[in-house]
UniProtKB/TrEMBL annotation:
Protein name (database record): DUF4283 domain-containing protein
InterPro entries membership: At4g02000-like, DUF4283
Species: Spinacia oleracea (Spinach)
Superkingdom assignment: Eukaryota
One Pfam family matching this protein: DUF4283
Signal peptide start-end: none
Taxonomic lineage from the root: Eukaryota, Viridiplantae, Streptophyta, Embryophyta, Tracheophyta
């Protein structure tokens, strides 16, 4: 037996209106107190006005930001990190349920074994990373440590897309190895 309550659009719109400009967030791999999250978000998003943070369950939070401009800036300027842990940020959608949420992006380290020494430069590694996903960071100290067995790059990977197995530089084909692929 189920109860069904119908809501016409004219009744549904007012109850959603408060949340239309809010965000849904989740810190991947770590949980923090609400107060620590609020303070951290204020700082990294450089907000002058306070934000409202509501726990939704399963590590998800609804964040009401002070303006539509702030919301758009937050959505377009990521990825965001709190103490090294990635913050998933997405627009609020009506009917959001944490138990049914799908995380479509993840931070992944990739290795390029035997990448020739001439390709161990930040611009080249960024270009490679952006072909795989979105460049986040790399360690450029391999040459200083006399270790160029492989290049290691962190990328933001869209899990909905097919992952690339190889990358071609000039006439050379290089294998991409994914570490801890989600």
């Amino acid at each position: 037996m189920e109860a069904f309550i119908s809501l016409d659009q004219d009744k549904a719109s007012p109850i959603s209106e408060r949340w239309v400009h809010s965000l849904i967030i989740k810190v991947i791999g770590k949980s923090f107190s609400v107060e620590f999250l609020k303070t951290s978000l204020q700082r990294i998003w450089k907000l002058q006005q306070p934000l409202q943070l509501i726990a939704l369950g399963r590590g998800f939070y609804n964040v009401s930001v002070p303006s539509e401009e702030a919301r758009e800036a937050i959505l377009s300027n990521g990825p965001w990190f709190i103490t090294g842990y990635m913050l998933i940020v997405q627009p609020w959608v009506p009917g959001f349920k944490p138990s049914q949420a799908v995380i479509s992006k993840s931070l992944v380290w990739v290795s390029l074994p035997e990448l020739p020494i001439e390709f161990h430069s930040l611009p080249i590694l960024q270009r490679i990373a952006n072909e795989i996903g979105s460049f986040i960071k790399t360690y450029m100290n391999a040459i200083e440590q006399n270790k160029v067995r492989f290049a290691r790059i962190q990328v933001l990977l869209d899990l909905a897309k097919q992952r690339k197995e190889n990358v071609c530089l000039r006439a050379f084909k290089h294998t991409i190895q994914y570490e801890e692929f989600p």
